Amino acid sequence: MDWGRAKNVLIYAFLLLNLVLGYQLWNDWQEQADSNPDFSSLESNIQKAMDEKRIRVPAKIPSETPELPKISYRFVDGGGNGKVVDLPSPVDSKLIYTPKELVSALKTSLPNIANYRYDEAASRDGEFVLHPLVDGKWPLFKIDLRLYYSNQKIISYREQNIEISSSEGEKRQRVLSASKALGNLVENFLPEGSVVTEIELGYYGEVFNSDAHLPAAPAWRFILESGTEYYVQGISGDVISPNIEKAKE
Q1: Contact in structure between 231 and 239 (CB atoms under 8 Å)
Q2: Residue 113 and residue 96: Cα distance in Å, rounded?
Q3: How does the average pLDDT of the chain come out, rounded?
Q4: Could you tell me if 173 and 62 lie in one domain?
Q5: Which end of the chain has fewer surrounding CB within 10 Å, N or C?
Q6: Which helix (H) or strand (E) is 205 found in, with range?
Q7: Domain match, 66 and 173 both
Q8: 240 exposed, middle or buried (CB, 10 Å; 0-12, 13-18, 19+)?
Q9: Percent of the chain whose predicted confidence (pLDDT) is above 90
Q10: Cβ–Cβ contacts within 10 Å for residue 36, how many?
Q11: Is the pLDDT of residue 7 over 50?
């Protein structure tokens, strides 16, 4: 037996094993880093308050602070309630997870389907919820397109038809950072033990049966593990919560 060759084989095997283990360790660390939020954007007093109130934020804290204007919108074709309309042909509900196919399948019945974004957090058994997009990017929360499904088929929908326009004289303003909005909630609104599972920037719109133009401002939406939603107005920092009916515009 050639012990020299066997020794070299063992050395190379151990080196290869170390490389594999090292890569796996790095990969695990990278996944953990991606899944953990960056709390460096939070002030030390906010982090302390989170610890004291046992508040956890597994959601990613967005860093974007774009300049956005307030907008206005109005309901058309029957106001804000809408009517449930049956689809001529049921559509496979799995398409909700592939937006391009969903648009292709529903564009005949819903020509504006490409202007909506699926909201997984707001959806529930039996219905998918989508929101219209402002400037093709920012969801208009509380205004919905609901797709109803049964037996894994989308069979009907209810759409709140609206027209969106920029408010006259409104200038674009830089929105409040998500970390500052979160800090306000942590200190003043979130109950002990809260778990924030989602943070997203959009617009907050109210539903009224009115033909008048209604205002909507940029807002951060925070969703708790319990399903409770909080909205922080992106310009003023005012909060819409279960105990506050309306934020100041």
Answers
A1: yes
A2: 11
A3: 81
A4: yes
A5: N
A6: none
A7: yes
A8: buried
A9: 44
A10: 11
A11: yes
Token pair in block for residue 99 = 């937006």
Distance CA 223, CA 121 (A): 8
The residue among 91 and 200 whose pLDDT is bigger is: 200
Structure token digits, residue 208: 């009224």
What pLDDT does residue 230 have? 95
The H or E element spanning position 88 is strand 84-92
Residues 6+ apart with CB under 8 A from 216: 70, 71, 72, 73, 134, 140, 203, 204, 205, 206
CA–CA dist 207, 212 (Å, integer):
12
pLDDT digits (tens, 9 = 90+) for 143-182: 999 999 988 889 999 988 889 987 667 789 999 999 999 9
Q: Kindly give the interhelix angle for 44-53 and 178-188, rounded to the nearest 10 degrees.
A: 40
Q: b/e map of 66-104 (b: 16 or more CB within 10 Å)?
A: eebbbbbbbbeeeebebeeeebeeebebebbeeeeebbe
The verdict on residue 75 lying in a domain is no
Tokens of 7: 């020794």
Residues 171, 217 share a domain: yes
Please give the Cα distance from 55 to 128 (Å, whole number): 29
Maximal C-alpha separation, the chain: 92
Residues 66 and 171 in one domain: yes
* The token pair that represents 169 in the structure block: 């004289």
233 neighbors 221 (Cβ within 8 angstroms)? no
The CATH number of the domain holding residue 89 is 3.30.310.160
* Residue range of the domain that includes 149: 83-159
155 residue type, one letter: I
| Rounded distance between C-alpha atoms, residue 97 and residue 103, angstroms | 11
